[in-house]
Amino acid sequence: MLFSKINRLLLLVLLISWSVFSQKYPGKVYNASNVLPNNTIRSLFVDSTNTLWIGTDNGIVSKKNGVFESYFEEDGLALNSCWAISEDIFQNMWFGSYGAGISIYNGTEFRIISENDGLVHNEITKLFPYGDFMYVGTSDGVSRINIKNYKVSSWDYSETDDLFRVSGFFEYKDQLYLTTYKTGVYSVAEDENTLRLKKINDRKPIYSVFVKNDSIYSNQKGYSTKEHLAKYLQQNASENTEQLGKSIIWQQVQTKNDKMFAGAWGIYDTSGGIFEIDGEKFVSRAADFNVNSNQVYSLEYDPELDKLYIGTLDEGLHEINLSQDVSFHPLPGKVLGFTRTKFSSATLSSQGLQIIGKTSNTISLKRFKEWQENYVSKNSLNLPKHEDSFYELDYETPAEEIRFYDIKVFEENYWINTNIGIFAVGNSGKLKRYIPIHSEEINFTQDGKLIETHPYGGVRVYTDLNAFDYHYYSPEDPATPTMIVNSFRNEEETYFLSVFSGLYKWRNDRFISYLNSDIWPEKQLRHISPIGDKLAISTEFGDIYIVNDHKSFEILKKIPRAKIQGNTISFLSSYKEYLIIATEKGLTFLNNEKQIFLDKEQGLNQPLLATELFKNHLFVGSEGGFYILELDRILEAERKINELKLTEIRINNNEKSLKNLSSKNELEFDHDENTVLIKFATNAHPFPDKLRYQYKLHPKEKWSLPFSKSEIFLPFLSSSTYDIQVKVTDYSTGTKYHQKLLNLAIKPPFWKTWWFYLLIIAGITLLILSIYRYEIRKNKRFESQKSLIQKRFEETKMEALLAQMNPHFIFNAMNSIQNFILENNVEKASEFLGDFAKLIRLNLEYCTKPKISLEEEILYLKSYIKVENTRFNDSVKVNFHVDPDIDTYEVEVPSMLMQTFIENVFVHAFPPKIKNPTLNISFNELDSGSIECRIQDNGIGYENASENSSHQSKGTSLARERLAFMGYNNQSLQISSNKGKGTLVILIL
Fold first, then answer.
1. At 414, which helix (H) or strand (E)?
2. What pLDDT sits at residue 104?
3. Residues 6+ apart with CB under 8 A from 932
4. Distance CA 979, CA 977 (A)
5. Edge-first strand listing for the sheet containing 735-746
6. Is a pLDDT exceeding 80 seen at residue 14?
7. CA distance 426 to 410
8. Which of the residue ranges 367-381, 503-517, 579-593, 937-951 would you say has the lowest mean pLDDT?
9. Distance (Å, whole) CA 455 – CA 498
10. What pairing do the DSSP bridges indicate for beta strands 918-925 and 877-882?
11. C-alpha distances in angstroms, 149 versus 132, 133, 152, 597?
């Protein structure tokens, strides 16, 4: 209980102490170098749709959700200079120029009202909507314009020769008043349709006024006053009111948190700038808002976005985010770390150590150096040496070159490891211990021993720091941590991360290497952080693992770097169920349901160097200071997107009017109007760059990939109905919103309509009848020719048969039998005669069939080859290959078609000079369902395999003719040959 109270008190003291430093507010600057046409901002206005309107000396600019649009005289504006902006109840925008009257914009076109229409003067200074009228203050008089019919009425005031320059309007007790620069304060009245002004008092000069409740701030030359309105409107009001500020205030605004800001420009001096009115004091916020200009002329506040807009006459526009989710607090140098004990908190920067407790202490670089020098002077003989595998430490390093690595807490002391040694500092800022060792990463065992790591030289675990006793772990031992870049200690073990050899831990008085123990093969690790009872560990290249390492090591989840904003992780932390990831782009808060991303839009600028969690505040170190993030406000932020609105539709690059769009957002176009560009907008959002959009064209489809621009391009849509839905993911809050945006129908072309189909069917029916009659007549002619074709087919068949079994072959076979008999080789002659008889029998059997099975064809070919090869003394090696997927008994092929090509092989391919003559015959099934037969030899070949070649046998020509009669094309038979390399015949059957 006491510890909890101390912690709460410490956090309160810490926040109060840090709040003493000036807070930096995140902001942006818009000027002529990026989006503005001119750096002189005369007027600002946030309309009912949260669009910011910017009046400059060279045009008007609108800004909504980060999208800028400019308007000039060529667009219809009366004059490019704009000194006053307002909005009427019909959401028309009014722009007062300084020299050409008023421009009224209805979202499509401009309407101009000037002296020619009855306006008292063309130099507009103020615009004020009141009832059914827009009151117009000018540099010499006042008019009013009926917002319904644009009728102009003017006051004729000639009681003074001075210019009647209107400087402001305000309402009090249902009465309208105006102030002037040099002629006093007036009430505005309408009496029996006569316009009149009644002078209240003679206060002057008045540059501007601002009413807050029953008080009024009246801004005069060099100072302001604050009075009760009743007193201010007395005829003989005293001017002895306390003077506030020292400059001329041109505009004031009040925020939703009841803060007041004033914009000042001293005209002839440099007293201007941006101020906060704190009670009766004007406090400069120039440094906090990073506004260097002393010519602040216009202000505007957007309560929806909590943003303050500051218009200057020389620096353009400043946009300040007043939200307190992220605040920056300056400190000298780079803030490298935070930590705390029970009684104090510490911040480590490149300039030293700051401790905040009962008292505040700052330990400078010079003081650290003095501590080192005092120790070295007393212990010069007992200093560790580089030769003994200690990391090199230069005792001559000057104070300004001290480099801090990290700060940790152990036994209620702050331990800081540096390039000049390790320092233990107490809560009061006194040195508790100095150790003359150089280590970039240190930690402690669970029983209080210091662990000193060395990139290359092993690890030391100190058993007695006073006696400098330690146990040395050699880098030769695979379990010894090397190249350590981070560590983490809990109640049971101390973890070490290496960029080359993975994860280590100290437990039960020994080191364990996860890599060498085959527990986890990941080598290149960088950061570690607890998340609940688990660990989050990042790799060198940006992936993150969530692991459980209690009883056994288990990887629960991998977060790929593609899911994280940025590539290089700076640090890891956690809060509740969220993992906090810092990268070169910003901070990502990640859990199973949400992903929230913060960056420079929220004021979180690089670099992000270190972090510490204090209760529900996250402290992040950076260059020149640190950030404080209120985590509950960030992580529990409500959804900011609640509306999507169509802003533009282009069909075939032609803009379509949205005026006739139905309440259901339904549109219909012709079939050739099918390339569609849809632009849409959300309601006002403080961080539009954090929005990512997805769409789908039908409810059951998947969402598209995310994109950042709020437009959808749909080219060449087919005829259909599209129910276009859009989903918005807001990474500033982690929330999602989706809405039906548009129901789009693309009508089918006439050739896809039912009546066209009916017409086509009727036409096809008539065509079929005509074709039927034609076919009957054609069939009669065909029958008369059929007998002639059949006769020619039989002749071709017989000619092919003769080519397959020609007399020359028979003579050669008989001659071979005679030779065997003369050689008394009766057995060989008898065998040959049997084979020849079998071949003759197969030839007679198959020649009468147009088709035979592949099995029969192969049997015939083998019989033929056996006879031919016997004449060659079996010198030709013959290889048969049949694709196992082919059923040779079911597949049918033209009968005896291949014998012709095999005969050519034995007749022409193998003269005596051919060594190892080989014939390869293969049958393979093709994807098309056809059978490919390949007949390939390694014979002499020939040069030209064209159909006109003299080498083409008559049998080949007859085979082609036979294939043609059977319906095969020319590609069914392919013959290729190279002289000296053989011949390849391919038949596709």
1. strand 413-418
2. 97
3. 923, 924, 925, 926, 986, 987, 988, 989
4. 7
5. 666-669, 735-746, 721-730, 691-696
6. no
7. 10
8. 937-951
9. 9
10. parallel
11. 10, 10, 9, 49
Secondary structure (H, E, C), 12-51: HHHHHHHHCCCCECCEEEECCCCCCCCCCEEEEEECCCCC
Question: What is the identity of the amino acid at 62?
Answer: S
**Strand pairing class (534-539; 442-444):** unpaired
Spatial neighbors of 418 by CB under 8 A, at least 6 apart, are 368, 402, 403, 404, 405
> What's the token pair of residue 737?
């919103």
Cβ atoms within 10 Å of 659's Cβ, excluding its own: 6
Cα end-to-end span (Å), the chain: 94
* pLDDT value at 666 more than 70: yes
DSSP secondary structure, 736-794, as one string: EEEEEEEEEEEPPPGGGSHHHHHHHHHHHHHHHHHHHHHHHHHHHHHHHHHHHHHHHHH
Strands 431-435 and 249-254, how do they pair? unpaired
Name the band, by pLDDT with cuts 50, 70 and 90, for residue 523. Answer: very high
Cα–Cα dist 627/330, whole Å: 9
Burial of 791 (0-12, 13-18, 19+ CB in 10 A): exposed
For 177-186, the CB contacts below 8 A with 24+ separation are 177/233, 178/135, 178/137, 178/142, 179/203, 179/206, 179/208, 179/209, 179/218, 180/204, 180/206, 181/205, 181/206, 181/207, 185/232, 185/233
Write the pLDDT tens digit of every residue in 834-858: 878 887 888 777 777 778 888 888 8
Q: What are phi and psi of 375, to 5 degrees?
A: -65, -45
The SS3 assignment for 709 reads coil
Q: Is 663 helix (H, G, I), strand (E, B) or coil?
A: coil
Cα-to-chain-centroid distance, residue 279: 46
Closest CA to 137 of 172, 107, 173, 94: 94
- 3-class SS of residue 886: coil
Pairing of strands 676-682, 610-614: unpaired
Q: Residue 863, SS3?
A: helix
Considering just the CA atoms, what is the radius of gyration of the chain in Å?
48
* Residue with token string 């506040």: 301
Considering the chain, what is the average pLDDT of its residues? 87
Residue 888: the pLDDT is 86
ω into 26 cis (within 30 of 0)? no
For residue 662, give Cα distances in angstroms to 219, 642, 666, 668, 746.
Answer: 50, 20, 6, 11, 16
**What values do phi and psi take at 52, rounded to 5?**
-90, 130
Q: In this model, does residue 239 exceed pLDDT 70?
A: no
**pLDDT, greater one: 484 or 830:** 484
Burial class (CB in 10 A: 0-12, 13-18, 19+), 3: exposed
Are residues 863 and 901 in contact, defined by beta-carbon separation less than 8 angstroms?
Answer: no
Count other C-beta atoms under 10 Å from residue 636's C-beta.
9
Q: How is residue 851 written in tokens? A: 């088709």
Q: 640-656: per-residue pLDDT in tens?
A: 999 998 888 998 988 88
Q: How many residues does the chain have?
A: 989
Most trustworthy range by pLDDT among 110-114, 153-157, 548-552:
110-114
Q: What single-letter amino acid sits at 258?
A: D
Mean pLDDT of all residues in 127-131: 94
Classify 943 as helix, strand or coil. Answer: coil
* pLDDT given at position 498: 96
Percent of the chain at pLDDT exceeding 70: 92
Side chain identity at 460, as an amino acid letter? R
**Side chain identity at 566, as an amino acid letter?**
G
DSSP 74: G
pLDDT value at position 811? 66
The structure's pTM equals 0.71
**Running DSSP on this structure, what letter comes out for residue 653?**
T
8 Å CB contact between 329 and 24 = yes
